[in-house]
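FAQ
Q: What does a multi-component entry look like?
A: The components come first, one per line:
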Amino acid sequence: MPNYAVIEEDATAGADPQELVNIFSVGGASRGYIYDFVVGSGAAPADAAANYDVIRTTAVGTEATGFTPVQLDPDSVTSTFDGGVSHTVAPTQTADTEMMVFSLNQRATFRWIAAPKGELIMPATTNNGILITRRTSTAAYVIDCTIHFYE
Amino acid sequence: MFRPDGNILIDGMEVAETRQCPHCNGHFVSIKGSGKLRGYCTMCGKVTCGKQKCDKCMPFERKLEEFEKGKRLILD
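Then the predicted structure of the entire assembly, as tokens:
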């Protein structure tokens, strides 16, 4: 079970919704299991409230840049998934498939860790995956997001 | 005995445990007295998220297999 990381650093949050990281299957070869993610901001501390969604996606959006998942063990094989960041067109999201929603103050850093067998599962289906997105916010500020998964 | 399916940390401190719905794979924080209605699946032996679509027993693993085989259009 090789482990991978996908990150979005200093995402410039403009108008909401602000897509952060989308992980999706490239060829439908295997399932992906998200077991850890972190969301925080490196902006100057200020009070701003934001709502985030972790939601399923069925089609890839348009990315300004992609992000190839980094192997946590450099000796492992490359991932069959791909990471999408800096979207100009949002990935297609499946309505009512939010897998987790949370609200966060800009000053705080949020981390979620799955217990064994509690991972968020991505299907072995081409272009399907999971997206972390900022749904609404009271202010625009830069966001960092890291997702760890295995397959 | 309740076994958490996940943990939430704010600024490095654990603040909540999450449960995972056996029917949609989603996680939620169960807060006693919150007024939110959850379900319980006697087949899966787990608390469900409370969404109406998750009231009926349909294990997520089966949904996943059907979706991957193209027999299911939406993975919800």
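Q: Is there any commentary attached?
A: Sometimes. For this entry: The first strand of chain A starts at residue 3 and ends at 11.
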